[in-house]
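Hi team,

Filling in the usual template for the complex we talked about on Friday. All components are listed, including any nucleic acid strands or ligand strings, so the model treats them as one assembly.

SUBMITTER: L.P.
PURPOSE: interface mapping
COMPONENTS: two
RESIDUES: 437
SEQUENCES:
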Amino acid sequence: MEEHNIDYDTLVSTTKIEDITSNEYHQLLLRQIKYNDPDCTYLCLSQDGDEYEYLPDNLQDLGWLGYFIGKSTTLQSLVIEGINLLDSSSAMELFCSEVNRNRTIERISLYGLNTVQTNALFKTMKSFFQGNNNLTSINFTASELDESASQHISLSIGGRNSKMSLTSFNMEDCVIDDRSMVDIILGLSIHPQLKILDLTNYDGHGMGRNSCLALESLLHWTTTDLRILRLAGNAFGDEGMKIVSKGLVNCKSSDS
Amino acid sequence: MTLDISSNNLGGDGVDSLVSALKNCTKLKRLYMSGSGTITVKGCAALSTLLEISTLELLHLANNNIEDEGAQLFACALEGNTSLKELCISTGGHFTPTSPITDTGWGAFSRLLCDTSSINNTYLSNHSQRPGALPTILKDCLKLNDYTDKKIVAKKKMLRYHIKFDMQPLLEWDLKALPFV
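RESULT (copied from the run log):
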């Protein structure tokens, strides 16, 4: 894809912020990120346009935003919503391949992504997830994912050489099937320090028997410091509860 | 630890497994299990034993069609409990008159909220609850118990129900020793 070959490192010295976007508030935000303003620790890519929210005008704008996020050393929290501009996997890859370089973000929230977006994001940002030892919290909510996306997520969060040490993982109300949920729970098995796990799913897409078994094993063998476990709405019934309970037995052995 | 397993279609032996898994869990602080289906009397009996856990602060069992018998079990289990701050067992909204728990069931709680049978019991019974569709007698007690300063609660109740008892020495003795439930 052509956009991927843009060499922002070379272009940055000759590109003015004014050339990237005409929106003055966006110019201000871009400058803050570019020059590592310590006051700018949060950014949200969103359709709404509230404070600290950025809606790129076009792909060029999107690419530069990704580039500056990737280079930032002060940004701590990033929110990516499934905005229209990110609707194609090439746009998502253009943005994410730049964000991928970031190593300071501690919390990432992904909201309302469709299957294509989820796939592209996790496929492109593996090194961000595996190499960022500051990242402790992933909120991945109200999004759609298929089997291939869940495998990308599993690799992203559970890669063998991962430096990330997750303390909070939230997958509330994602459209996911039982089998894909298993992949994701397996990915969490390298994070024994996990404190918050939210697999709430009120849409009836979520945990079935297989993911209950995977969770039992996670609770039994891995998580020793879990403080919050949310499984509401999954409708896994008595059978599921019996399986999960076997893992919960382990929770009493350590203090919080 | 907070555990939320609301709306998971539980009702039968899943509840038993959960209770036996959590029974000795001294980490458990909050358990949300609302809208699980219908929790039977047997289920209530099992769940009420969780009130023996000294760390449990919140138990949400709303919209589980718990009836009088179940309510009485929880009231009974609450008697020895000193940690729980919130218990929810009702079905339907605050303004729904169709609650399966009648005055009989709620009546079991009135003794907990204000036990007038003896001076000592009046003094000790100062649980507070969030009022919902409750009988008036409970609402009054709850209102009385709702002060954060439990000394005032005890004092007010003494004045109301044991008017002849001189509690001055008791209050002077050591206020910190007043029971805080």
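MY TAKE: Strands of chain A lie at 42-45, 53-54, 77-81, 107-111, 137-141, 168-170, 196-198, 228-230. The mean pLDDT of chain A is 93.

Thanks, L.
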